[in-house]
Structure formats: structure tokens, C-alpha cells
């Protein structure tokens, strides 16, 4: 059997081989999709030992499954984590993690800019259990550190954030949190392990919506938590009982996607930088939000903790929402859709997608202009994407001039 990967192998090799050696069956070179819910044993002693966790093996599909296990291994290896466990969606990974680790009376410190669903857990669901979530201004490091020092069980971070690509200093905040006795959890969905490895920067746990870049083909939902073994074991136990299990078919699709993770993310990051630079040169565009631009507020922090700057950018158009209406539908190479991280480019206004439930004033308070467009770059030829955005902008200019 192949070794799969070694301690020294580079991240591209790990994307291809990581975890793959575990469950090759009957000489198959590819991981089989094991749909069986039950796993049978003729030997009662052996069954008993597997059930007690004293011996490797599977008992029942809600708990563990061979295909799902390989997916968890691949993520674990890519993030350099001690352990990993998976979930039916990214939100299940986030909520199961928080509900495993928090108790009534605890305090969580996080950012106002976290993913919409995460924000809802903080503002809507945790307070039901007398758990306080303090959402800090995202890039105000002193503010965040002060809140952590007041006492917190968890510091929950994201970087880059959605949709305005803000950056926080993961190393600095992690050190401050650990000094104050708090655990640090980082949602690494936007960066991916190709561009950022929070565990190396000190984080205790890393979470992914595998639905996005890890899978990369927008055809499977999934989530994963990896990091400190003692914590991951507790979170696994919560999930095996509460049941937000990843489906084996989804695990297979995510695994297949991850074999090209490094190729996709490098291309997407390179293209995103090119498009961000191009948009900055255009009259029709008001502001471009991308951590790879030297004009970005926290470009220096991003350059320190990331390899490249990721496949997502956003930009605001001059004028009102009319501009967005005159631009977006004319793109040829972008699904107007709420997902991101796929091989096809997707674009949409946060006003309609991630932040649809907020009022205009609330969006304004978060620094989200009404004319903002989030653009998740696919792996199309970069020249076609730039030509596409160009014709979209020219169409917009033409259409707006026709109006009184
Ligand atoms: C999409 C997303 C999630 C939620 O993941 P689902 O798989 O949709 O449940 C969490 N965090 C970030 C940053 C995301 O983009």
C-alpha cells in the first residue's frame, strides 16, 4: 500500500494523497463510497472491542463510515491538525462545535463580520442558553483583546471575512486569547489550508464549510472541524449523538474535489488579484475590497499570514442599485448565485444574498454599500473573465446613460 504522504510532503502532494491510503478495497486505487449503514461482525469479541473503540472499525453510519473517515483524514493532514471530524454542512460544524464547548453563563468573543449563519447563532440562539456573544468591530484588535481579557471561553475568528474581505491578525489575537485562558476557533473557509494554516498560528480549532473551496464544485454540502484531539473528540461525540452526519456520497464528492484544491485555489487567487487590480483602474467602480491590494487596510497582516489572498473579492459600483441591475445580469461567465468557491465564477449583491435580512441602515453600519458585488472567481481563463467584466461595465454605462 502507498504511504499516502509523509511529514515532509508539500501541500499539493497532500491534497492528492492525504488520507487516501486508509481504505483501499480489493486493490481499488480510488476510495470506495460505502453506503452501508451497518457494519457486521461474526466475532462477538471483535464487535465488542470495535464498539468500545478499542479496535479500529465501524459500527453504524451515524457514528463513523470509511468514506467519511478518509475525507476527515485529508482535511486533518492539510491543516496539520491532530484530529478532525465532519458534519452534514458547515453550519452544523459551527453550531455543534459551539454547543459542545459552551455552558450557560459562558461568554464568546467574536466579530461583527462573521458569516451570516454564524452571526445568527451568536445573536439568536446562544442567548437562549444564557450564553453571551460579544461581537467586536472586526479590525479593532485592541477592542477584541480588551473583550477577551474581560473573560471569555472562546474567541471565534474569521479572516478574510465575508463580504468585505477584512483581515484580522490571527497570531496576535490567538496569543492574547491564550494568555486570557480562552480557546481560539478560526473559520478558514475563505482562505483554505492552501493560503492559510491557523493551527500553525496557534489556533485550537479550525472550521470549514467544505461546501465552498474544499469541495470546489458546488455539488455537495459538508463541514469539518479539526485541531486539538481532546476538543475534536468531544465535538465528535456531540455530533454522533445529535446526528448531523456527513453523507458518504458527499464525502466522496468532497474528497474528489480536494485532490485539485491546490491547483484551483492558486489559480483562483491569481485571477482574483488580477481582477481586483483591473477593477481598481475602472471609472465605474467605487471601491475594490481585496486583501491582496496594497491599498487594503490590512494588506500587511494578510501578506504576513497568507500565501496568496484567496479567490473571493468584492467591489462597489458608482451610482445606486440601478448600477448593479445594469451590470450583473450581463455577465456571461458568472452564475448569479449565493454560493462561492466553485470552479465556475459566481457573483451577487450581499443586499440579496448573505445580508438580505438586514435593513439598509444595518448593512451601512457593517460597511456594506448597497452597490456592493461579491465576486467569487472560478477557474475560467483569466482573459475571458476580464473581458466579461469589461463588457458588463460598458453595458452598464450605456444603459444608465439612456435613463433620464
Ligand atoms: C458558507 C459558509 C459557512 C456555512 O457553510 P454551509 O456549508 O453553507 O452550512 C460558514 N462559514 C463561511 C465563511 C461560509 O462561507
Summarize the structure.
The chain is an alpha/beta fold and 404 residues long. It has helices at 11-17, 44-51, 66-79, 90-101, 116-125, 141-149, 170-179, 192-195, 229-242, 248-258, 261-280, 299-305, 321-327, 360-365, 382-402; strands at 83-87, 107-111, 132-136, 154-158, 183-187, 205-209, 223-227, 285-289, 312-317, 335-336, 346-348, 372-376.
CATH superfamily of the largest domain: Type I PLP-dependent aspartate aminotransferase-like (Major domain)
Q: Given the helix and strand composition, which structural class is it?
A: alpha/beta
| Measured distance between first and last alpha carbons | 71 Å
Q: Give the CATH topology of the largest domain.
A: Aspartate Aminotransferase, domain 2
Contiguous low-pLDDT stretches (5 residues minimum) are none
Work out the helix count: 15
Form type = globular
Strand order of the biggest β-sheet:
1-7-6-5-4-2-3
What series of H and E elements makes up the topology?
A: HHHEHEHEHEHEHEEHHHEHEHEEHEH
Distinct small-molecule ligands in the complex: pyridoxal-5'-phosphate
Q: pLDDT average, as an integer? A: 95
Main β sheet profile? 7 strands, mixed
Question: Based on DSSP secondary structure assignment, what is the total number of beta strands?
Answer: 12
Radius of gyration: 22 Å
CATH class bucket of the largest domain: Alpha Beta
Tally of discrete structural domains: 2
Strand content: 5-15%
CATH architecture of the largest domain: 3-Layer(aba) Sandwich
Which bin fits the share of residues in helices?
Answer: 25-40%
